Amino acid sequence: MRLYVTRSALLGVFVLAACKDSQSTRPTAPYVSRSAQVTASGANVVDIGNDTTAQNETPIAVNPTNSQNFIVGANDWNYNDGCAVNASFDGGKTWTPTVPNGFLPGVTRYTNDTSVAGTGTGDFGGDPAVAFGKDGTAYYLCYTYRVSGYSSYKAQLLLSTSTDGGRTWLTGGSKQPLTVVAQWDASGITKGSTGQFQDHESIWVDPTDGRIYVTWAQFHGNGSNSPIYVAVSANGGKTFSTPAQITASTVRSNQDARIVTNGDGTHAYLTFDNGVQGGKGAVMYVSESSGPGTSLTWSAPVQFAAFNDPVCLFPPYCFNVSGGPFRGPGSYPVPAFDPTRQRLYVAYADIVGGLAQLFLASAPGDGVTDPRNWTIIPMAPGASGDRLNVEMSIERGSGRIDFISDDRSYSNNTLVDITYGKSTDGGATFVTQRVTRQGFDPSQSGVPSGSGFRPFIGDYNGIISLPTKAAFAWTGVGKPLGSPPINLDIFFGSVTP
Hints:
Blueprint: H1 7-20, E1 31-32, E2 37-38, E3 44-47, E4 55-56, E5 60-63, E6 66-76, E7 83-88, E8 94-95, E9 124-132, E10 138-147, E11 153-162, E12 179-184, E13 197-205, E14 212-219, E15 228-233, E16 244-245, E17 255-261, E18 267-274, E19 283-290, E20 297-298, E21 302-306, E22 313-314, E23 318-319, E24 334-338, E25 343-352, E26 355-364, E27 375-378, E28 387-394, E29 401-407, E30 417-423, E31 431-434, E32 447-449, E33 452-454, E34 462-466, E35 469-477, E36 488-495
Antiparallel strand pairs: 1-8, 2-3, 3-36, 4-6, 5-6, 6-7, 9-10, 10-11, 11-12, 13-14, 14-15, 15-16, 17-18, 18-19, 19-20, 19-21, 22-23, 24-25, 25-26, 26-27, 28-29, 29-30, 30-31, 32-33, 34-35, 35-36
């Protein structure tokens, strides 16, 4: 998310976007993606963004009533300074364009036209999350922030909906307001200099009963104090339960929370990492909930795994892999549930033997709160370079495990590519393949920041599993447009497992 930059840098984002992004160069209608290709491995790759400034952080969702209908979200550094959205109705071959109207209305005070005001109240937005309900309704979750003093923010967590597959969304404002899941003012609970801010929310819509789960870490403005909260909706996102605090408010550095449910929707599982009173995610926790409606009771979080040396790509504060520094995804737990084996799986990256590698923890669905039930194995071992930023999903009918990761194994640990992997035996073995034709150096491309650029490829990507396809989205480098190199783009890929 964007909140770690200074206020002056944030204001610089708005100025630089206006200076560098020419309205005359933008496409004005849906287009056939300019760089669709089939790689040597058989993966289809499409440049979704195809505009003149940056996007990153790319969740993806598929419509359960139409497997050809995908949506992808992103942080967007166009004039709207908010959350981007693209939709495909032909299996990812073509996409609705990012500009001029490919953003979520109702988030910021801006649009991609400097003469037209936006319908939101925020100075900027970020941390996109997307999902579909079982009836085909699309959901988009996004923060909106108002800068209100030195490094202080007023924030809302907003939910928008689309009933036409992501082509159009609620307009925002008083006519079609977005649902406020939670909101915070700049003063915070404590007297910390930054007030409160919220980090990396996620959304899960249960495919059986349609309940919407939203979770996030809420930093209080007192160092790294950050309890995990959960809110639930049982009426299609019209209203949400009062946010429930899952972790003790005295415990620091809880973050990267995600939720999945089991095969029939009777149990929900929350995972997150925790720095044990400071630092980046040293251990991982799970909490379980069951019951109808929104009045859920969550178990006390239980530690199920620990990092050896968690990946931390957050310069200048930390950067513990080789090469030029860049902001990117660190180590975090990614849960998925296999209804065929009734088992919860959690993928994560960890530095072992000097390289970032992938690991897979799992436990039976009825025993996740007993640490003795968890097993941990290397996930797709054998890489000769860092494997970072793992994203995982499971195909519900067969139990096939799919994952993607940023992979530096193809370039002597210097460039980032995308690797896809699958397992059909519950994670015992994986088959992997390279998705991208060539890698890029993330320290040489980034997003607008002040008078230059900030190397930042986003904190997460996205993947979904279908019976005959795995589809995913990630941040890569778009067409060069001069200096500074601030044209990161959204890419879509798919493979036939």
